[in-house]
TrEMBL record:
Domain of life per record: Archaea
Full protein name: ParB-like N-terminal domain-containing protein
CDD domains membership: ParB_Srx_like_nuclease (cd16400)
SUPFAM superfamilies: ParB/Sulfiredoxin
Coiled-coil intervals, chain numbering: none
SMART domains: ParB
Signal peptide range: none
Domain annotation ParB-like N-terminal: ranges: 34-117
Organism: Ignisphaera aggregans
């Protein structure tokens, strides 16, 4: 399922992100994969250039994004996949496969990867949503219980085509 960027922007501008989230049933929509615009996602960690180059070579050589990124359905905070998001952004691709989870549920947990920076679910949401800041790269590790994020093998060509089609749609709506 593709969420149209112009529709999403319209809804966000008219009713706000908080009310928009209330229209989605997190139980019904979580644990599903969607294609979403990168621009609406909120990072909570930075990225490492060397790691981006390493992953980018694999994505470009294979021609697909193997795994969707993991995103909280309520806040659109990226939980896993910051490097993949940055790679697609640098390639000019505006859409990405996302696996939506309800971060407040017990089926997901977070652990700090850095001894000097404690993290919790609430501190991650606070950092990304309210402070609009990010932690250093590789600060947190998310663990999933009772499910596995399966590969979707989303072709880069599909995401590029979608980017071009939606850009033409946005241009037509603005004229």
């Amino acid at each position: 399922m593709v969420l149209d960027i112009s529709l999403l922007n319209f809804l966000l501008s008219k009713i706000g992100r908080d009310r928009l989230n209330s229209y989605f049933d997190p139980y019904k929509d979580s644990l599903k994969t969607y294609i979403m615009p990168i621009e609406v996602l909120r990072p909570h960690e930075g990225t490492l250039d060397g790691y981006i180059e390493y992953i980018a070579r694999d994505i470009i050589a294979s021609g697909y994004v193997k795994y969707p990124i993991v995103v909280d359905i309520r806040t659109l905070v990226i939980l896993d996949g910051h490097h993949r998001v940055e790679i697609l952004r640098r390639l000019g691709i505006k859409y990405i496969p996302v696996f939506l989870v309800d971060y407040l549920q017990d089926y997901i947990d977070v652990y700090p990867l850095r001894k000097d920076i404690p993290v919790t679910k609430h501190s991650i949401i606070d950092m990304a949503v309210f402070k609009k800041a990010i932690y250093p790269p590789k600060t947190s590790r998310h663990i999933y219980y009772g499910f596995t994020v399966l590969p979707t093998y989303t072709p880069l060509d599909h995401l590029k085509t979608l980017t071009v089609e939606m850009s033409k749609s946005d241009t037509a709506l603005n004229h």
